[in-house]
Amino acid sequence: MKKENVIEATNLTKTFGEFTAVNKITFEVKKGEIFGFLGANGAGKTTAMKMLIGISIPSEGQATVAGYDVSTRPEDIKKSIGYMSQKFALYDDLTVKENITFFGGIYGLKRSQIRIKSEELINNLGLQEVSNDLVGSLPLGWKQKISFSVALLHDPKIIFLDEPTGGVDPITRRQFWEMIYETAHKGTTVFVTTHYMDEAEYCDRVSIMVNGKIEALDTPKKLKEQFKVDSMNDVFLKLARE
Amino acid sequence: MKRFIGFIRKEFYHIFRDKRSLFILFGMPIAQIMLFGFAITNEINNVDIAIFNKSKDATTEEIINKITASKYYTNKQLIQNEKEIETVFKRGKVKAVLVFENDFSKNLIKENKATIQIITDATDPNTANTIANYTNSILRTYQQIVNKDIEIAYQIIPETRMVYNPELKSVFMFVPGVMTIILMLVSAMMTSISITREKELGTMEILLVSPIKPFQVIIGKVFPYIFLSIINAIVIVLLSIFIFKMPINGSFILLGLESVLFTITSLSLGILISTISETQQTAMMISLMGLMLPTILLSGFIFPISSMPIPLQVISNIIPAKWFIIILKGIMLKGVDISFIWKETVILIGMTLFFMGLSIKKYKIRLE
Fewer CB atoms near the end CB (10 Å): N or C, chain A? Predict the structure, then answer.
């Protein structure tokens, strides 16, 4: 059985004046997939992602996310997706519980739902001891996990992760990817940007952007065969050098 | 609505958990009003003077008594010779020396004329000027009393009345100014900082990706500051009424409404600043240099606008605080109603709409 597509982009383009940041990219992401969106800094990853999450309007082309058109129904998209930025943005001067309550609130969760969800989240992450501590006092790795869980509070169909593992140690990164797997396993689609090439190996499929265009898109295994190399790192270097 | 309440609760957590915000919000207004009310004043009280009395007769003694009996002067010392005059000035405590000429009484009777020299320390020109004026007026009064039995062919007696602030209390002039500065500081600076903080932390991005709408974010962020500004305005008014005996001659309701209007004007400026600055520091610098300084210098708070050079007078018109100070002085001191200050009110409303429009435009450009 063919799985449904939750993201479909066709010739999606974004120009800033003369500069074309994203140049006619076409791809689709299936339900429950972990889709790696790779590219060097400045390749247009972030711009492309901003269009998909409904905070930037495409100059040309179209895309649907969770069945909604990004140009006309960004508000509906926002309700169906979760988003975690590379800054693990939480409020440092609020406690863990207060952060959960706040973000649950802006996604329109009911108070009773928030209470259940927040207990679940705290137990899952083993945060019972620090649930009333200010987030600012917690180590970065914990913030990252909390930030991820908070982005999943409203059970989104798709979660967008913008370089979610920047600045954390390898063990924490490994643990974080386990959380991503678990999430995908439950049926949530994961759209993740990264520039750690070893992480690309964990994805079901990856796309590599160079200068605003998608230059390669397949499973990591097939990409390595296609470019006749042993690691995603070499795939990336080959593409970037061309 | 529930989202909104959650948002505001979060905003209050931010404010109450940050000692610096708390200090600016509640420490500053009280400190400023006390400073301006007590310490910074144009009046003179108990100024130390010295007297060099060369004649030591009944008339000079009488005049000296009159002068030292006033609350303005305290006679610190009697000087014995010319050289000492300079020494006392150099020591700095004595601000003025009165010199009575030799044979003061005799001259007065014989020639109908005698001189008193008033020497003031003009390193502080304002005080020097005020001392000279006060001394002159004390002498004039004395003269009138002495001469009251004598018919003079004709004389002009100026009768001055200072309306609205008969005692010329400077605190009456400062209260509207301080209130303006505080409302401006709390509303414009604090909101621009708190909005840019979300940008810096990356939480603004999260909020923009969430279903909450941008204008809800902005309203959620500024609402607590409207509330706190109003509390501040009330505190300032209460302090000035009870501590400085400032009269509020006009309507409290009008005063309240105009204060809310000015708060919104400042908030819209704060929002505008936050759209053009990326970091909290930039926001603070722009607020301090771009708003606070011109407000203090050009709003007529400290320096009268009418004595500024023409270009500055023109510039002062674009400072919202100028219009609010006129409104405040009108309501507090003159007790006017809206029919006297509608023009200023309309100007403030116009400025608010302009700033808001500009912020929305800037915001849209960023989103494109």
Answer: N
